[in-house]
Specification:
The chain is α/β, with parallel strands linked by helices. The chain has helices spanning 15-24, 39-51, 78-102, 106-117, 145-160, 179-183, 238-249, 274-285, 307-313, 325-342, 360-366, 399-416, 434-449, 457-462, and strands at 6-9, 58-62, 68-75, 131-137, 165-172, 188-195, 206-214, 225-233, 257-260, 289-292, 371-373, 377-380, 385-388, 391-392, 421-426, 453-455. Helix 1 (15-24) packs across helix 2.
Length: 463
């Protein structure tokens, strides 16, 4: 197969293609229609508990033109899985009853009778603990090594999350699939039952196996790291950013990300400021990361949107909130061209206020960015992996916000300040507030004493 293939994390827009793959492979690897004609119900039952309840545990195999060729999905939480099934089951049952009496043909009615009368008896037992996986590949990629790579990537991700056991149930058309054969792929066969629902379409017996793989894929421990980012660099904030760099890196040495706004508030451009260019070139030469931080960092000329997000939360600086995709791509492309002209590496894009449409993730990956982030996640490209790490930040625009920030920092520090990866995001005026300066100084000293070093976003995602 010559087309380029990409293994990445699931996105919401993948849902329809995953359901289609499930229906196209639901009858012993072929389309499910001869067995059960209601593709929507069939795919909904088998895939939505994963894509809707635990999307963070889903990986897809993508070919040309964003076409999906396969997927592997896992359920780590029995409560989420069974809770979702309980929530959706009444609707599925009503749909099946209606179809049985008013629209389904005889093969589909026979399948429903099997589900009610023999389904549970012919389902092999499963382990009480472990990650339950569901995998499907289209015929064109079956038998290729990419299928194993997809599953190994899934296992590695489960290992990162501390999981040491996975299990799944696999249909086999042949009884000669023995325990020794499955063991070659690292699986242990724990139970097997003959499945009679295919007898009308296939005379040879068909079996359903429960396969378990137990392997510790936990990655080796790495030194703790502080992801340090300084937001809103523009010609008017250069001196403040310089002071923050000295303040932070003198306490917790390393590298950091500088989030550069190309044309801050439609005023002077970074490219028109000789001092700014000299400073940023020096920072890149020293190993720091220069990230694109919007383009204008304001909403001038944009239509009104949510007052909460655009005014109360971000003071009309949420440039990419509800920004049309074409305009978002235009601004990001213009910023990248600036980076190219200056010889800077454009490895990251961070939207002002961390507010942007999640559909932009796909475009950012295709543009060659290595990361973006939200308030709670660092997103790695091109795979789209989301790494949970809440950013520690301050909101200091008013007296009541400063009072809230004074109390919020200790809470964030207690909850997130002990994690292996800590994120700290500063804005130009933060160190001008005395209590912020004191809190940050103490916190950075504590991190350094515990072995943390400062990392840029780019170095973190590429390590």
């Amino acid at each position: 197969m010559s087309e380029p293939l990409l293994i990445r994390y699931y996105r919401a827009e993948d849902r329809a293609q995953i359901r289609q793959i499930c229906a196209e492979t639901g009858f012993l690897g072929d389309p499910v229609d001869p067995l059960f004609e209601d593709r929507e119900l069939f795919a909904d039952f088998l895939t939505s508990p994963y894509t809707d309840a635990e999307p963070e545990n889903c990986l897809v195999l993508e070919g040309e033109n964003r076409r999906l060729l396969g997927y592997v999905m896992g359920s780590r939480s029995v409560w989420k899985h069974t809770g979702y099934l309980a929530y959706r089951m009444p609707g599925w049952v009503l749909r099946a009853i209606w179809g049985y009496f008013f629209s389904y043909r005889e093969p589909s009615r026979r399948y429903l009778r099997w589900v009610l009368s023999r389904g549970r008896k012919e389902t092999p037992s499963t382990p009480k603990r472990g990650v339950h996986f569901h995998i499907n590949l289209l015929p064109e990629v079956r038998g290729l090594s990419i299928g194993k790579v997809l599953f190994d990537t899934f296992l590695d991700r489960m290992g990162e999350l501390g999981e040491k056991s996975v299990f799944g149930q696999v249909i086999s058309k042949e009884e000669r699939r023995t325990e020794r054969m499955f063991a070659r792929y690292g699986f242990r066969l724990t139970d097997r039952r003959e499945v009679t629902k295919f007898r009308e379409q296939r005379k040879d017996p068909v079996y359903l196996f429960t396969l378990v793989q137990e392997r510790d894929r936990t990655p080796p421990p790495r030194p703790p790291r502080l992801i340090l980012s300084l937001h809103d660099f523009h010609p008017g904030s250069r001196h403040q950013i310089e002071e923050q760099m000295q303040f932070c890196l003198s306490r917790c040495p390393g590298h950091l990300s500088i989030l550069v706004v190309p044309h801050y508030h439609h005023e002077i451009s970074v490219e028109d400021s000789k001092e700014s260019l000299e400073f940023l070139n020096k920072c890149q030469d020293e190993g720091h990361d220069l990230a694109i931080h919007g383009f204008f960092h304001d909403r001038q000329g944009l239509p009104a949107a949510s007052r909460f997000w655009t005014q109360w939360y971000s003071a009309n600086e949420a440039e990419f909130f509800s920004l049309p995709p074409s305009e978002a791509a235009k601004r990001i492309t213009a910023a990248k061209e600036l980076w190219v002209r200056q010889g800077w590496r454009a490895r990251g894009f961070v939207a002002p206020g961390w507010l942007y449409s999640s559909s932009l993730d796909r475009d950012l990956g295709e543009m060659g960015f290595r990361y973006t982030c939200t308030l709670r996640d660092v997103i790695h490209f091109p795979q789209g992996k989301k790494e949970r790490a809440w950013a520690g930040t301050y909101s200091l625009r008013s007296t009541w916000r400063r009072a809230l920030a004074r109390a919020w920092h200790p809470l964030w520090k207690f909850r997130c300040g002990q994690e292996p990866v800590v994120r700290l995001s500063l804005h130009p005026k933060d160190l001008e507030v005395p209590f912020v300066r004191r809190q940050l100084g103490v916190f950075l000293d504590e991190l350094a004493d515990r072995g943390y070093r400062s990392w840029s976003y780019a170095d973190h995602v590429e390590s």
